[in-house]
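3.2 Worked example (two chains)
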Amino acid sequence: MQGSRPRTPSADRPDHSKRPFDIAAVLRRIRRAVRELPDAAMFDLRERGHTTVFAQLVACIISIRTRDEVSLPAAIRLLDAAPTADAIARLDEAEIARLIHPATFREPKAAQIRAIAQRTRDEFAGTLPADFDVLTSFRGVGPKCANLALGVASGAKRIAVDIHVHRVTNRWGYVRASTPERTMAALEEVLPTRYWIEINRLLVPFGKHICTGRAPKCSTCPVLEYCRQVGVEEHR
């Protein structure tokens, strides 16, 4: 019911109305729930043929502070026009910014993307290696984008924690962490490695359409009996 206030268990007082948390069962149910929802942007991009670490890193940069509905078409426009690091390096920043419009901060993102393309061409012969240290050596590339690009493009066992993964896993009570970076570290301790790549693919659509930031759809949530609803004060 709208406006209801579910009981939130404290760290030292478990909620006995809930089932013991089972990540395998939870993700199995979420897999079914999101089957008909749009895929997370970078996984969608991979299915469209943009499979390299470079393409995935570029797409992640475009997605920063930008909704998938905007960032995915922007990434497709850029990568269809210039699918390789060498091709993007030959574009000027204004043309890159035009292609990724209306992504937020398109001018600084265009400069960043061109710089990465030039360095990829000049230092790595046009092929960006699947190496976390290399990716995070680029200005503005943090662990989330590096891990997501590596996981999607090369299958590397990396956890990419965006706002959806952070919010949902803490709301479940599966981890307790104050930032996405700390959630990533916490998940590395408890999440079986077989789910490290998939969790982003599942929780992005789940977090956007079901376990939303405000007033999540708890009444129809497929994993309500496992979720501790930490911090939920209003739901649908």
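3.2.1 Second chain
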Amino acid sequence: MTPAELRAACRAGRWVRPTSGLCDGFVQANLMVVPAEVAFDFLLFCQRNPRPCPVIEVLEAGRVEPASARGADLRTDLPRYRVYRDGRLAEERTEVSGLWRGDLVSFLIGCSFSFEEALQGAGVPLRHLEEGCNVPMYRTAVPASPAGRFRGPLVVSMRPIPAALVPLAVQVTGRYPRVHGAPVHVGAPGSLGIGDLSRPDFGDPVEIREGELPVFWACGVTPQAAALASGIPFCITHAPGHMLVTDLRNADLAG
């Protein structure tokens, strides 16, 4: 599918699964939608935490069509959404049209799914794609830098990489800082406060084979952890792993 075809499938309810591995060559984006009264605080949070929150685009209050995906509708064109109220996950939906308000400001944030094409092209295996599941994601004990109302832990995604290929994975992903860039940690999950890799906080567990190391990248689910920790009254996000696929090219984001 092209990005436009995938967005249409989401809008029609025909695609409600994770987007990893789809639309090779095109940038995928996390979504964070907040009331205008806290939008500056969230923008500052992103600026202070550029690894987990690299901003691709900010839409003015009430707007639903991003410049990076002409014809798209942020209320319907992601496979699945989450709604947070007063620091709690209130519900998960496949569209949020009925919840939209004129004061909502939308942020599109780079996603590590975008650099997976480059990893595969370099010969780095990706276990979650092999197993047909969502990438595992974990809350860490590492605090993000607070800003205004927003504070909370760094969230990371994990991919098991053969030890000999870890330097290559670092080199390849380091070329894409606008979609999280190089890993933030390699091996020793306990150093991040992660106790059990078989129990991710988001996504699905994957097999880690002999000779592989868990490699961790900053993750765009970090804003959702901040929404929980900060208790903001209302926000809408993507469901972890269920991204907006834009019309931007991955190659255009490479450094």
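3.3 Remarks
The chain has seven helices and eleven strands.
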